[in-house]
Design brief:
single chain, 288 residues, mainly alpha, Arc Repressor Mutant, subunit A, Tetracycline Repressor, domain 2, 12 helices, 55% helix
């Protein structure tokens, strides 16, 4: 009797198209294409390489990540790295999935909306903590084990809703797009403010942010004076709608704190999702 417990692949219907071959990097993420070697376990591993790359990106940004710098960090030659990672393109894929492991568990006992808000905010927070993630190309973000775990948590939040899986996935994708846009605006505007404050104070580019005046950083945000510009320069002839809307806007109004902007965006998107769920009959009309 055979002792092989490997499950047989499901039989495909005769008229079904052949299964699409997944990219090698995706297969390696899932451990399906890892080379098997005899002998003792190697001292260097892909996990060590990825960890060193993430540390480097955290400290100096994604542009600093190179096979040579990583080899120096782990104490091996660059050629030794290629036994575990095919190149920088695959390394970025592995880094992208590895950082997703830092996302927290999402509570499911507070209802679908609270769960999706926590799910969305956690990703924005991770993006703000690791700005280099926003610089990863889309080709570096395929569904690996950690990313799929995060998607699975969103499905757990949406589990009570009577909605087809493709529509649940579409809602999750919509929120993921909002995360990318919100995090990018927050990161880029903050970077611009930091650069401006350093420049105006005559400080070197490497001056730590902790040494900069927080009030000056808030004032240097590119969006800090956005409403003031509209109220001051949107005249009634050229911009009649803006003129009417901002005619009574106080120029001394304080800028909106970043977290308020994040809360507004998440709330507005979830309001739209809630309206969609009501229309689809996935939740009662009373919103519960």
């Amino acid at each position: 009797m055979s002792t092989d417990t490997t499950p047989e692949p499901a039989e495909q219907p005769h008229d079904a198209p052949p299964a699409r071959e997944l990219p090698a990097a995706v297969q390696r993420l899932w451990g399906a294409a890892a080379p098997r070697r005899r002998g003792p376990k190697p001292a260097l591993s892909a996990a060590q390489i990825v960890g060193a790359a993430i540390d480097l990106a955290d400290a100096e940004g994604l542009a600093a990540v190179s096979m040579a710098r990583i080899a120096e960090a782990v104490g091996y030659t660059p050629m030794a790295l290629y036994r575990h990672v095919s190149g920088k393109e695959e390394l970025l894929v592995m880094m992208s999935d590895a950082v997703a492991a830092d996302l927290p568990d999402v509570p499911t006992d507070g209802g679908w909306r609270a769960g999706l808000e926590a799910w969305t905010r956690a990703q924005i927070a991770l993006g703000l903590a690791r700005p280099w993630m926003l610089e990863l190309p889309l080709s570096a973000t395929p569904p690996g084990p950690n990313r799929v775990r995060w998607i699975d948590q969103a499905f757990g939040v949406l589990r009570p809703l009577d909605l087809p899986p493709d529509e649940k996935l579409a809602i999750i994708g919509l929120l993921a797009q909002h995360v990318l846009g919100e995090a990018r605006v927050q990161i880029e505007s903050h970077r611009a403010a930091v650069q401006q404050v350093r420049r105006e104070a005559g400080l070197p580019d490497g001056t730590p942010e902790s040494e900069l005046d927080p009030a000056a950083l808030d004032a240097a945000n590119p969006y800090a004076d956005f409403e003031t510009v509209l109220s001051r320069y949107a005249d009634a002839t050229t911009y009649p709608n803006l003129f009417e809307a901002f005619a009574t806007w106080p120029e001394t109004a304080p800028p909106t704190p970043p977290d308020d902007d994040i809360a507004f965006g998440v709330t507005a998107v979830l309001d739209g999702v809630e309206a969609y769920l009501r229309r689809r009959g996935a939740i009662p009309d009373d919103g519960s």
